C-alpha cells in the first residue's frame, strides 16, 4: 500500500500531508477512510443492482485485457468483490455521517491500537522524508482502521493483493489503449447514462490541465483574462463581504462574543482572484516543472513518472511551513473554493468568465451568478464545518454552546425542508438528502448599487434578472442513471432543487416576482440561517 501511495493511489488507507489541524501554518500527516472502486458504499449492498453488475463486468473485461488466466478470473473476482463489499460496510458509516471523529496520536500509539498494520513502514514508503515513531498523525475514524486490520487478517493474502492491484489498474485504465477506453465508457454508460464520450483532443486537454494546470493557466490567462475583470471581481467580493458584516449584526441567534469573532474571521478572510502573480514569472513557472522528464514515445511511463514526482513533492512538505501565497486551485479550472485551513476563498480566472461573469455585464447578472457563488463560499467559513476553524484556519471551538444549539436548530429547518423534496427517476421516488443543503442558505445578496442597465427585449427588473441569473447557474441536464448516482455521491443537491430550495426561503424573490402569500414559492414559514 505504501508503494502504491507513491503513485497517488489511496487504497484501503487514505492518507495525505496537509495543514495541521491545530496549527494551520505547518503540515501534518492525516489518515482517513479511503474511497472505494464504486462511488458509494450503498452500491455494494445490492449484488443484482445495475452499478454492482457494471462494476463486476468492468473487472472481468479489464482482467481479460491484461491476459489473466481464464480459469481463475471468475473465482478471483468473486473473492475480490466479497472483500470490497465488506470494506464498503466498514466505510459506510463514515460516508453517511459526512465525516469521522478526529484524534491525534503518535505513530507509536497508533501501532499499539492497530498492530496488524506496520504504520511506520507504510509511512516511510509513502512519504519521502524521515518519519519517526514519535511523530504525531491526525486520524479521522480510528474505528475504521481497527476494523480494516481485522478484515485484512481474515482475508486470504492473495485476495488483498489482487484488490490493491485491481484498484491501481482501475485508476490508470484511462491512460491505457483504446480497448480499455471502450470498456471504461461502457461502465460509465451504466453508472451515469452517458451516451457518448469526449473527443480524444478534449480528453488530452483535460488531462494536461488537471495535472499540469499552472502551465496551461499561464497560456489561458494570457489570452482570456485581463486586469479589468480582476478589478471588477475584487470590488464585487468586497461589497459582498460588507453585506455579510451587516448580516452578522442582524442575526439574532448568534451571541455577541461569537459575533465579534465571526466578524474578525470574515474581515481577515483572504481571497485569491483570477490568478497568482507568480504565474507570469517564466523562471518560476519553469522551476515548477523542472523535476519532470518526458519522452515523446513513452506516454504511460511519463504518466507514472509524473504521478510519483507530484506525489513526492506534496508529501515531502511534512516539515515545511505552509506557504500562504501558494494557490490551492488552478486558474484554468472552473471551480470556486473555500479552504477552511487557510480561511481563504479562491475564484480562479476560468470561473470569472462568460456566461457567469463579465466586466461588461450589468450588476444584476454578475451578482446573480458569481455573486451568489461568492456568498456560498463565504458562508462555508461559518457552516457546520467552517465553525470548527478560527480566523487562522486552526481547529478550535470558538462558538458559544448556545449559539451552536441555535445554529443547529436553524439548520434543521432547512434539512427538513429538503428532506421533503423527491425526484422521480425510473418510476420511483427518491428522497434528497437534506444534510447536503446547509451551505445553500445565503439569502441576502441585493447589492445592485444604483441604477444599472436592463436587458433589451426582456421586461424584467434588475432584481428579477438577479434571480433569473442565479437560477441559470444551476441549469443541468442529467440522465436518469446519472441522477441516481448523484443522489448517492454528490456533496450538493441537484441543481433544480438547489434553486427551488434557496428561492423558496427568499422574501426578496417572492416580492420581485409577486408570488402570493402561501404559494409554493412563498410559503408562510421560511427557513433562514443567514
UniProtKB/TrEMBL annotation:
<dbReference type="Pfam" id="PF01431">
    <property type="entry name" value="Peptidase_M13"/>
</dbReference>
<dbReference type="InterPro" id="IPR008753">
    <property type="entry name" value="Peptidase_M13_N"/>
</dbReference>
<dbReference type="Pfam" id="PF05649">
    <property type="entry name" value="Peptidase_M13_N"/>
</dbReference>
<dbReference type="GO" id="GO:0004222">
    <property type="term" value="F:metalloendopeptidase activity"/>
</dbReference>
<dbReference type="GO" id="GO:0005886">
    <property type="term" value="C:plasma membrane"/>
</dbReference>
<feature type="domain" description="Peptidase M13 C-terminal">
    <location>
        <begin position="335"/>
        <end position="529"/>
    </location>
</feature>
<keyword id="KW-0645">Protease</keyword>
<dbReference type="InterPro" id="IPR018497">
    <property type="entry name" value="Peptidase_M13_C"/>
</dbReference>
<dbReference type="InterPro" id="IPR000718">
    <property type="entry name" value="Peptidase_M13"/>
</dbReference>
<dbReference type="GO" id="GO:0016485">
    <property type="term" value="P:protein processing"/>
</dbReference>
<dbReference type="InterPro" id="IPR042089">
    <property type="entry name" value="Peptidase_M13_dom_2"/>
</dbReference>
<feature type="domain" description="Peptidase M13 N-terminal">
    <location>
        <begin position="3"/>
        <end position="276"/>
    </location>
</feature>
<protein>
    <submittedName>
        <fullName>Uncharacterized protein</fullName>
    </submittedName>
</protein>
<keyword id="KW-0482">Metalloprotease</keyword>
<comment type="similarity">
    <text>Belongs to the peptidase M13 family.</text>
</comment>
<keyword id="KW-0862">Zinc</keyword>
<keyword id="KW-0378">Hydrolase</keyword>
<dbReference type="InterPro" id="IPR024079">
    <property type="entry name" value="MetalloPept_cat_dom_sf"/>
</dbReference>
<keyword id="KW-0479">Metal-binding</keyword>
<dbReference type="GO" id="GO:0046872">
    <property type="term" value="F:metal ion binding"/>
</dbReference>
Amino acid at each position: 500500500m505504501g508503494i502504491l501511495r507513491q503513485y497517488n493511489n489511496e487504497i484501503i488507507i487514505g492518507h495525505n500531508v496537509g495543514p495541521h489541524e491545530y496549527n494551520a501554518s505547518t503540515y501534518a500527516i492525516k489518515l482517513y477512510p479511503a474511497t472505494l472502486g464504486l462511488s458509494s458504499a450503498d452500491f455494494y449492498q445490492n449484488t443484482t443492482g445495475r452499478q454492482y453488475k457494471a462494476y463486476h463486468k468492468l473487472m472481468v473485461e479489464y482482467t481479460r485485457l491484461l491476459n489473466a488466466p481464464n480459469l481463475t478470473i471468475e473465482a478471483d473476482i468473486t473473492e475480490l468483490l466479497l472483500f470490497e463489499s465488506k470494506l464498503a460496510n466498514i466505510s459506510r458509516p463514515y460516508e453517511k455521517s459526512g465525516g469521522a471523529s478526529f484524534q491525534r496520536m503518535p505513530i507509536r500509539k497508533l501501532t499499539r491500537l492497530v498492530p496488524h498494520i506496520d504504520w511506520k513502514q507504510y509511512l516511510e514508503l509513502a512519504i519521502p522524508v524521515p518519519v519517526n515513531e514519535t511523530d504525531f498523525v491526525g486520524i479521522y475514524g480510528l474505528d475504521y482502521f481497527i476494523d480494516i486490520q481485522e478484515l485484512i487478517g481474515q482475508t486470504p493474502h492473495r485476495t488483498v493483493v489482487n484488490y490493491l492491484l485491481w484498484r491501481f489498474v482501475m485508476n490508470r485504465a484511462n491512460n491505457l489503449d483504446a480497448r480499455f477506453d471502450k470498456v471504461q465508457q461502457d461502465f460509465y454508460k451504466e453508472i451515469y447514462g452517458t451516451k457518448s464520450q469526449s473527443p480524444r483532443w478534449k480528453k488530452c486537454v483535460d488531462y494536461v490541465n488537471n495535472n499540469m494546470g499552472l502551465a496551461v493557466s499561464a497560456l489561458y490567462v494570457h489570452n482570456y483574462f485581463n486586469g479589468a475583470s480582476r478589478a471588477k471581481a475584487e470590488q464585487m467580493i468586497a461589497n459582498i463581504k460588507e453585506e455579510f458584516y451587516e448580516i452578522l449584526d442582524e442575526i439574532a441567534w448568534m451571541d455577541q462574543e461569537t459575533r465579534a469573532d465571526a466578524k474578525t474571521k470574515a474581515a481577515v478572510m483572504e481571497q485569491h482572484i483570477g490568478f497568482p502573480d507568480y504565474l507570469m514569472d517564466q523562471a518560476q513557472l519553469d522551476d515548477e516543472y523542472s523535476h519532470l522528464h518526458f519522452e515523446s514515445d513513452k506516454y504511460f511511463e511519463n504518466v507514472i513518472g509524473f504521478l510519483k514526482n507530484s506525489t513526492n513533492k506534496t508529501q515531502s512538505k511534512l516539515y515545511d511551513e505552509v506557504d500562504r501565497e501558494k494557490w490551492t486551485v488552478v486558474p484554468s479550472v472552473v471551480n470556486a473554493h473555500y479552504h477552511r485551513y487557510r480561511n481563504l476563498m479562491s475564484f480562479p480566472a476560468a470561473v470569472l468568465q462568460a456566461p457567469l461573469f463579465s466586466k461588461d455585464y450589468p450588476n444584476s447578472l454578475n451578482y446573480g451568478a458569481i455573486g451568489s457563488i461568492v456568498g456560498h463560499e463565504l458562508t462555508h467559513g461559518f457552516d457546520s464545518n467552517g465553525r470548527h476553524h478560527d480566523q487562522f484556519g486552526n481547529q478550535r471551538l470558538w462558538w458559544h454552546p448556545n449559539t451552536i444549539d441555535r445554529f443547529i436548530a436553524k439548520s434543521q429547518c432547512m434539512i427538513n425542508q429538503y428532506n421533503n423534496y423527491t425526484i422521480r427517476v425510473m418510476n420511483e421516488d427518491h428522497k434528497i438528502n437534506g444534510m447536503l443543503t446547509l451551505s445553500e442558505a445565503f439569502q441576502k445578496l441585493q447589492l445592485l448599487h444604483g441604477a444599472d442597465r436592463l436587458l433589451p427585449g426582456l421586461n424584467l427588473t434588475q432584481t428579477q434578472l438577479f434571480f433569473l441569473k442565479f437560477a441559470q447557474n444551476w441549469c443541468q441536464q442529467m440522465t436518469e442513471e446519472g441522477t441516481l448516482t448523484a443522489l448517492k455521491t454528490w456533496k450538493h443537491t441537484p441543481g433544480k432543487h438547489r434553486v427551488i430550495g434557496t428561492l423558496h426561503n427568499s422574501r426578496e424573490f417572492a416580492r420581485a416576482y409577486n408570488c402570493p402569500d402561501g404559494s409554493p414559492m412563498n410559503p408562510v414559514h421560511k427557513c433562514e440561517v443567514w
